[in-house]
């Protein structure tokens, strides 16, 4: 099944990255984003509307990604800063060297690997489908069934957007409505402007908890690996990845995840 294959593909690629990053000493050319590095500040681009990975608590951006990135900066003896932007602006910010790296619950995909390099994966994601409790949509397959005309809400440029768009094209259907924030897509669902929202499972849980009358379908859409992205051939990739590997090995990453996601 193609939806499942996409998840598998992403997983395989992360393993490939893991092997290729080991012992990688950096490139000869000075990458554009080294500007951020020379100031000794690790600048993370994110979209702080993706709880529990990144979201605002008052004026401050908190969450799993923010804490892991801060721990990486500490380990590397660097200062740390976060730049909040739309999700689809993150990769351009990374490739143009405006920021040191992108960390945003970002799924490793083949398409993104054409323009950025990824770290090891530090978390798993699942694309799920949120519907109203009384929805006629009861499974992922309902979305792509012959003659289906459901309006699917997604966040622009996310894998939820990319996968549903491809699968709808394959099925000869064209019904994706794009929103700048996952929360806006969920709001549209509560107002019956879309019939469902395809989004990552952890933010989905938070959005469903915050809105009456919504539920998450039991069938998952795609399984994914989250990783940090860098400008291609950046020296920072090996440094940050080395720090990340240590933080995974000593349990810091899991402790941060456990702090934000309670085990069911
Ligand atoms: N994991 C999804 C992606 O990488 C969504 C990430 C997000 O919305 N922050 O496309």
Explain what the structure shows.
α3 packs across α9 (235-249). The protein has 264 residues and is of the alpha/beta class. The chain has ten helices and twelve strands. Strands 7, 8, 9, 10, 11 and 12 form a six-stranded mixed sheet that branches. A three-stranded parallel sheet has the order 5-1-6. The protein has a three-stranded antiparallel sheet with strand order 2-3-4. β8, α6 and β9 form a beta-alpha-beta unit. Helix content is 39%, strand content 25%.
Strand content: 25-35%
Q: How large is the count of helical segments?
A: 10
Question: What is the assembly state of the chains in this entry?
Answer: single chain
Radius of gyration: 18 Å
The CA-CA distance between the termini, in Å, is 28 Å
Q: What's the helical proportion of residues?
A: 25-40%
Bound molecules: glutamine
Uncertain regions spanning at least 5 consecutive residues: 1-37
Task: Specify the overall morphology.
Answer: globular
Mean pLDDT: 88
Briefly note the structural class of the backbone: alpha/beta
Can you count the beta strands?
Answer: 12
Largest sheet: number of strands, sense, barrel closure: 6 strands, mixed
What is the H-and-E element order?
A: HHEEEEHEHEEHEHEHEHEEHH
What is the strand and helix layout of this fold?
Layout: H1 2-21, H2 34-38, E1 41-46, E2 49-50, E3 54-57, E4 60-62, H3 64-75, E5 79-84, H4 90-95, E6 101-102, E7 116-132, H5 140-144, E8 152-155, H6 159-170, E9 176-179, H7 182-190, E10 196-200, H8 201-210, E11 214-216, E12 222-231, H9 235-249, H10 252-260
Parallel strand pairs: 1-5, 1-6, 8-9, 8-10
Antiparallel strand pairs: 2-3, 3-4, 7-10, 7-11, 7-12
Helix pairs in contact: 3-9
The protein binds glutamine.
């Amino acid at each position: 099944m193609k939806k499942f294959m996409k998840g598998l593909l992403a997983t395989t690629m992360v393993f490939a990255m893991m092997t290729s990053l080991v012992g990688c000493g950096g490139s000869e050319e000075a990458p554009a984003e080294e500007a951020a590095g020379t100031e000794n500040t690790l600048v993370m681009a994110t979209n702080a509307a993706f709880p529990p990975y990144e979201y605002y608590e008052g004026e401050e951006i908190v969450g799993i990604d923010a804490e892991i990135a801060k721990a990486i900066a500490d380990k590397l003896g660097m200062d740390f800063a976060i730049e909040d932007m739309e999700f689809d602006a993150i990769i351009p910010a990374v490739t143009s060297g405006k920021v040191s790296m992108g960390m945003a619950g970002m799924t490793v995909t083949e398409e993104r690997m054409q323009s950025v390099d990824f770290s090891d994966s530090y978390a798993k994601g699942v694309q799920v489908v949120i519907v109203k409790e009384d929805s006629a949509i009861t499974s992922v397959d309902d979305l792509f069934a012959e003659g289906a005309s459901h309006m699917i809400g997604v966040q622009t440029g996310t894998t939820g957007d990319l996968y549903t768009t491809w699968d709808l094209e394959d099925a000869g259907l064209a019904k994706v409505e794009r929103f700048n924030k996952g929360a806006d897509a969920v709001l549209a669902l509560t107002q019956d402007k879309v019939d469902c929202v395809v989004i990552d499972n952890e933010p989905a849980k938070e959005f469903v908890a915050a809105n009456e009358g919504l539920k998450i379908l039991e069938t998952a859409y795609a399984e994914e690996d989250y990783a940090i992205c860098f400008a291609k051939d950046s020296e920072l990739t090996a440094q940050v990845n080395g720090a990340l590997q240590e933080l995974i090995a000593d349990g810091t990453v899991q402790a941060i995840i456990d702090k934000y996601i309670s085990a069911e």
